[in-house]
Amino acid sequence: MIQDIKDTGTLKLAPQKTASYGQKQSAVRLASADALNQPIFRVQRRASADGAGNTKLTATSLGTFPGKRTVRDSVSRGDSDFYSLTLDVVSNVKVSFLNRSQNSIYKAVLKEDGSFYLSRRKAQAGNVEPRDETLSPYRRLRPGTYYIKLQNRAAASSNYTLSVTVTNAPAEVDCGCGD
After folding, report:
1. Residue range 2-168, CATH number
2. 144 close to 93: Cβ distance less than 8 angstroms
3. Which of 32, 62, 135, 143 has most Cβ atoms within 10 angstroms of its Cβ?
């Protein structure tokens, strides 16, 4: 399986962790640019038909931010796809997810410890219906590692497109209110 990662900023892919029992190994190569002359990175994995990590420990890194990353892949029953993003500074993040299949896909945003990320006191998890697109903006995320987990319970493989855009959040202005 070949997984496309479209980069609109600087991309530094972290090496994929491998295990002795034949987990994925990857090779990164620069393919041609797209119509907007943005480079497209292809991550080709061997020893598995799956294109993304199956656990937090083997999550596919989306690289160094700020910037935008777009991943096209698929998930099947009994499979989980994990992606990680690491923020070095307080950042604004937009997660766009397009379910390109005929089946629902479960999507969750997780904190470094594996618990659900809460936004407005709601866990950022739920099913994305067939052919639906979601856009989830997160303001002022603290530095750290976050994960996006995708699962499919249908027998057929389900295709998706995941885009993550990260910008550095501007510094908060002191209102002079006196804390």
Report:
1. 2.60.120.380
2. no
3. 62
